[in-house]
Specification:
single chain; binds 3-methylbut-3-enyl trihydrogen diphosphate; alpha/beta; Undecaprenyl pyrophosphate synthetase; binds magnesium ion; 45% helix
Length: 228
């Protein structure tokens, strides 16, 4: 498998079950990210995309949003050396401008110091699949209005060049933790032929056995892409 994408869900329920604030669930979820990076390296997975914050997540109480943004900054500061050790390039996918200035600064820094590595960790932040598709359409419409693009030349390949990270291959497998059977606006374009795997395990509890189970399930799938 070349590209694994994960909808990291269930942090809040994990915390609630322990009588802890939701932010503790997010902190525990950060530990899982660290573990999963190691599993992916050992499994030879080149791209790992993590859904960390959706455009819809801005609707959450300010206290929770602030806690998440704060965790992100401290996570980035703490994990820079780990990214170097694993030789992983950090990339961001989403509406970067929506993020607080200190988060953007931390992201820019880690992205630039890891830009030369081949393996990629892609963090989806303030990400929405529909938003991404609309922004691609807007860029094409702009180019057409300026006479730089013939609308008749737009096909799937041309359209895909205007997505956030056009050089990244589509995900092979999308995993969602915590049992919800929905995409929640994740990678709508790229998911067209991804295999899906949902586990009831909450993200902070997701361990090596759960990771192996997801990969084993993927290994048994027959990918037909509409053929026979
Ligand atoms: C996923 O956990 C992390 C984010 C969406 C930021 P949740 O916070 O959605 O946890 P639940 O779904 O409430 O348990
Ligand atoms: C999806 O989880 C977004 C992330 C994991 C970042 P949510 O918890 O926000 O999704 P819904 O609200 O259950 O669909
Ligand atoms: Mg959730």
């Amino acid at each position: 498998m070349e590209h694994l994408a994960i909808i990291m869900d269930g942090n809040g329920r994990w915390a609630k079950a322990r009588g802890l604030p939701r932010s503790e669930g997010h902190r525990a979820g950060g530990e899982t990210v660290r573990r999963v990076l190691g599993f992916c390296r050992d499994a030879g997975i080149r791209y790992l995309t993590l859904y960390a914050f959706s455009v819809e997540n801005w609707k959450r109480p300010k206290e929770e949003v602030d806690a998440l943004m704060g965790l992100l900054v401290s996570y980035l500061a703490g994990e820079e050396s780990m990214l170097h050790r694993h030789q992983v390039r950090l990339r961001i996918m989403g509406q970067r401008d929506d993020l607080p200035a200190e988060v953007q600064a931390a992201l820019n820094h880690v992205e630039s110091v890891t830009a030369h590595y081949e393996r990629q960790l892609i963090l989806c932040l303030s990400y929405g699949g529909r938003r991404e598709i609309v922004s691609a359409a807007k860029k094409l419409a702009q180019a057409a209005a300026e006479g730089k693009l013939d609308p008749d030349s737009i096909d799937e390949d041309v359209f895909a060049t205007q997505l956030y990270l056009p050089d990244v291959p589509d995900p092979d497998l999308i995993v969602r933790t915590s049992g919800e059977m929905r995409l929640s606006n994740f990678l709508l374009w790229q998911a067209s032929y991804a295999e899906l795997y949902v586990t009831p395990v909450l993200w902070p509890d997701f361990d090596k056995a759960d990771f192996d189970a997801a990969l084993a399930s993927f290994g048994k799938r027959e990918r037909r892409y509409g053929g026979v």
